[in-house]
Amino acid sequence: MIPPIIRVLLIGSSPLAAQASAHMRCYPELIVNHLVGPSAYPLDYQGAAAAFAPDVILIETLCLALPDCGGLTALMQMAPVVLLGNEPDEDLVLEGLKLGARGHIDWPTEGCARLPAAIRTVVSGSPALSPRITAHLLSHLRRQWLQDALHTTRGLAVQRGVAG
Fold it and tell me: Could you tell me if residue 137 is inside a domain?
């Protein structure tokens, strides 16, 4: 069940994060607490999250490139996470998804139209991925499945003594 008021913790220091923060303040059902980082990194993200008790956490994707993103990883256990960014490095987003993020929004490309809905979707327990990241994730999975199939086929052939 989606609460009538959604507490959003936003972590990021770029103009992108500031724009997203300002945009979300246009929605009365979203209460936003914007922690500016990583320029002031390390902030006490866990302490701030515990005090604010967010329903969802938005993390600027670039924060995942920091040497010590362990604090961010721990945050993903406290509330659902949506990654926010427009980096060309889709693999960084995949790493965030592996760490536990449930969504990604390309900001500002699609963010203005999709951000509030994505927040509600993730709070309800479903994933919310940008089309670009969904396509990259499917491509990544297909490559992995193909590698697995090749290894399995070769492994079976070796076991049967057919392969050389």
Answer: no
Residue with tokens 């006490």: 44
Q: How far apart are CA 81 and CA 84, in angstroms?
A: 10
Q: What is the CATH number of the domain that holds 11?
A: 3.40.50.2300
d(CA 32, CA 15): 16
Taking CA atoms, 121 is separated from 12, 51, 116, 155, 159, in Å, by: 21, 24, 9, 42, 47
**Which DSSP state fits 32?**
E
82 or 71, greater pLDDT: 82
Asked if residue 83 lies in contact with residue 103, where contact means CB atoms within 8 angstroms, the answer is yes
Indicate the number of domains in the chain: 1
pLDDT at 99 over 60: yes
Is 101 within the bounds of a domain? yes
In a domain, residue 153? The reply is: no
